[in-house]
Amino acid sequence: MNSDKGADVDRRIAAPPTMSVLAAEALRSMILSGELLPGDRLPENSLTAQLGVSRSPLREAMSVLEQEGLIVQAPRRGAIVAPLTAHDIYEIYTLREQLEELAIRLGVPVAEEARLDRLREAFARLEAATGDDQTEHTRLAFEFHLALVGLAGHRRLEESFRSLSLQMQLCMAMNRRARAGLETMKEDAARHRPLLDLALAGDRDGLLVALRNHGQRTFLLYAEEHVDGHSPESRAWFAEVRAQLEGSEAS
Amino acid sequence: MNSDKGADVDRRIAAPPTMSVLAAEALRSMILSGELLPGDRLPENSLTAQLGVSRSPLREAMSVLEQEGLIVQAPRRGAIVAPLTAHDIYEIYTLREQLEELAIRLGVPVAEEARLDRLREAFARLEAATGDDQTEHTRLAFEFHLALVGLAGHRRLEESFRSLSLQMQLCMAMNRRARAGLETMKEDAARHRPLLDLALAGDRDGLLVALRNHGQRTFLLYAEEHVDGHSPESRAWFAEVRAQLEGSEAS
DNA sequence: CGACGGCATACTGTCTACAGAACACAGACC
DNA sequence: GGTCTGTGTTCTGTAGACAGTATGCCGTCG
Prior knowledge:
Two copies of one chain form a homodimer. Chain A folds into two domains: 19-81, Arc Repressor Mutant, subunit A; 86-250, Four Helix Bundle (Hemerythrin (Met), subunit A) (Up-down Bundle), CATH 1.20.120. Helices cover 65% and strands 3% of the residues of chain A. Chain A has eleven helices and two strands; from the N terminus they run αααββαααααααα. Chain A has helices spanning 19-32, 44-51, 55-67, 86-107, 113-128, 134-150, 155-175, 185-201, 204-212, 217-224, 232-250, and strands at residues 71-74, 78-81. Chain A starts with 18 loop residues before the first helix and ends with a helix. Mean pLDDT of chain A is 88; it is low at 1-7. The structure holds a DNA duplex.
């Protein structure tokens, strides 16, 4: 009779989405698709008109997106799409990598078979994506990594990772027009298959190694040229990445 | 003339706090002081009456606290103080420890002298706390650790760490009445001094080792008995913690 | 010609009101 | 006696209005 406390009943039918959620999704896709660029202002009035919701749900949606790191709000000065500096990219990348590693260490080999299903499905969707919508394809790739992190069954870890992944998508959206078609989608799906296989085999160390070489480091160098705002840390880190890349190319 | 874009001017005079911020602070302290316990419902009407603000700023405050992990909201069902299971404690502790370690690896030795000032000040405040307000003392200890993590100059890392620290304070608030005066404040301040010294000396490895033995693991075992909701992962992890503790006691 | 000051405008912070959903209780039925 | 159903209440989701603040423009003064 599963008399839960009400907070976490496992719903069979999805709850009707609230306007706030719909507004958040719409805004998020506007940002991640590159329709809105970092630094763009987000006046509430025009957005309510554009999205067809009132200010209350819109403000709630903006608060969600702020938590996700996609927008920043200044008191009495409104919200803008989060501007990205080189230091931000350094932060996003280092933290995200670390979280992914922790997730693998905690979660592989996998405790519950069901979590692997999610990973399989995410890969299937990534493989099946045929259209040439680059934004959607990027999203699916991130969804796969999210499922990978989900293997640990660690809600907070997964949530942090998701937030950082979104910010990374924002970073890519910013540069998309310039780097269109950097790699084809089939190549990208193929690049992810080994990760799936290693996870299914429960090979923790193999997975850790594979992930270290999986990151799209070429993208990073590309991104560096399109932003400013270096910090001492980020400058050193980018230099290191560059060195590693050249080393691996030489070999 | 420092013509910033408006988003991040470094203000000399503090911006007048908004009602939302005040409400968030009030709510947070109500939760962390143990006045509200995990699972308690938070109806908007009674809270607006209690805090003297309208529903809009209150809702925004609740959204902030949800992001901090102190409360959880269910659509159309309102908010409750975040209930903590053993699995939650496992999540909070593992992730927090990992973030702290990453911060030290990235941030020590320290790049900018000014960051050390913050750490010194945090320690001074911790040492100077004489009153017997346990909640406040706990807060100051966490503030010290936050400053330690802040050495890395990694905003996102620090923010995640802060959120997890708040949740840990919630966990402690839950058990406070039972474990009152588990250790005196002077002892606690003394326990933190080596961390400060190691950070000032720029001794990264020494700091990492010290931190590994610094965590209040006895508290964890105590907490375990006051919650339910174990997962396979959390059960194994708690067992490991217990084993380590007994091992170190024996030696 | 450049800088300062005042004014108009746009935008956000907050409040109140209304509609619909979740919940609790009481009565009816098996 | 227990379970189910209907109804009333409580609470949340959303909308819209008002007030105060930030911003940009224009005219004036040095």
